[in-house]
Amino acid sequence: MKPLTFAILTSLLLTGCGRHDQQHPKKIAIIVSTLNNPWFVFLAQTAAKKATDLGYSSRIFDSQNNTDLESDHFDNAIASGYDAILFNPTDAQGSVTNVKKAKDAGIPVFCMDREINSKDAATSQILSDSYSACIDLGKLFVSTLHKKGSYVELLGIVSDNNTWNRSNGFHSVVDNYPQLKMVARQAADFDRNKAMEVMESILQAHPDIDGVFCGNDAMAMGAWQALTAAGKAGHVKVIGFDGADDAIRSIKEGKLTATAMQFPKRIAELAAGDADEYFKGRRDFAKKLPIPVEVVSAHNIDNYTAYGKKE
Amino acid sequence: MQTAIAKYRPMIARSQSLIALVVLCVALSLLSDKFLTVQNGFNVLRQISVNVCISIGMTLVVLTAGIDLSVGSVLALSGAVAAGLLKNGIPWPAHDLFIGFTLLGTIVAALFVGSILGLFNGWVITRFKVPPFVGTLAMLTIARGLTMLWTKGYPISGLGPKFDFIGSGWLLGIPVLVWICVLIVAAALVIVKKTALGRHIYAIGGNEQAARLSGIPINRVKIIVYTIAGLLSAVGGIMVTSRLDSAQPNAGISYELDSIAAVVIGGTSLSGGRGTIMGTVLGAIIIGVLNNGLVLLNVSPFWQQVIKGFVILLSVIVDKMNTKEA
Asked: What is the ipTM of this complex?
């Protein structure tokens, strides 16, 4: 066991030393919070593709929503001589030390989609602004329901800070209208099946709701199915978040009312582009670059496709 | 007097899940007038159908003193296989061929995949003496990874009305999903009560050494049991996929826990040899009713988890007290 461990460590060190060898293409590590959700799969794969197109080799690491595992990935990426890290953090606070660790090792980190709570650890942060997007969704929700009625909120995973960013943005608008009453708020874990089941039960208690706000598109699709089964699909307005394939199609068919389109393709490509320019010597990156999130509904749906704008 | 109590004690012990369910239902119907309605009853039955399915398989495994942690991942893979084959078939570009699948074909293929993974579990556990906890834990990861590979991480949606019928159709006034459950429970009851396999399962869980000495083919029985668990996970996978009209790559995560909870609440001992199919069905109904009731009452999601945990704990403690005295 001991000699084996030693051999592995040595080989890691040796590859580490070869980092500045100009003959090999530079290596980019892509560390994402989870691959258990199509949105992040798309983000990671787009980043990997862009890196390859720019002539670099890349590898995707899955942190499985676990800051601890993420820390291991950073250690491995540093040890095996990656030249840059495109990073989708698991947690704004918990991921800071990981980024600092890479910085100390001289490896630039480019954050994608989610931010970390540090001004100088990451080389650049290209962020999607969930909170403001949900403010816009909240405004749309209020006007669609004509400022009154009862509604249901389906939360994502309650320990995930994105769940609360979205929820808080939405409520910062909707809570100003006392005639809009939230009759139930339940967690459905960003999961389509759970959302359908929870919605079925909620509809028993509150058959006369007017709207449903869901923290992501998978839950919106599940809620829609429960409403369809209960024969209430047309009347109740359902709003999701993400801009996923199913949701875009559903809005096109006149089913879901709206979703918020984030631009994972743009975010991933910008981050990979930043890494490319970093290698070529550029150092003056915007510390935080917010990528606006756009509200997609029936009236502008023709401009959009899954995870982005039509080209 | 003493003997009279002793005589009825097993009966009380046997029906404790039923008593718990009745108490729960009475409490919920007092708290919410929406609970005790026919429609809500069907909601609960539809919602638990998947858990009942995989929990029946889990019960058989647990009766042999084993455990199957891979049910959720096997469910996801089987569902994804069904959806993928139905939607895309298998293209064979090298020969410019394309193999399409009929609805029946996709279902058979999905059941086959589930059974093979279950068979593999059983083989690893018997051939290499890997503890079931470890062997099926490995399968949990393997099958999840295979699901990701098969789906490339994206859901497969839009599977057509025929496939939808399984998940959202009705037959003779009862949801198709519930019919499937009834058939599976009936088949399991026959296996457990009327066949040599059923007797062997209990014998192995009761005392493996004694079972071996009395000539029971232990390895074969275990392999069959894990294969059945895989097959039933695949049935669950088809049910979930059809219900959602979409195969989600992250379907079935932590379903093994719900399933173990149903088995345990139903009074089956995790050390094997003792427990019933109907107990597990009741356990699954209790969990379903609890999930449904807590949402009906709009209990905060944080508290829901705490409450569910205590219910599991309580049922096991009551069970332990009963068996100790019996």
From this structure: 0.79
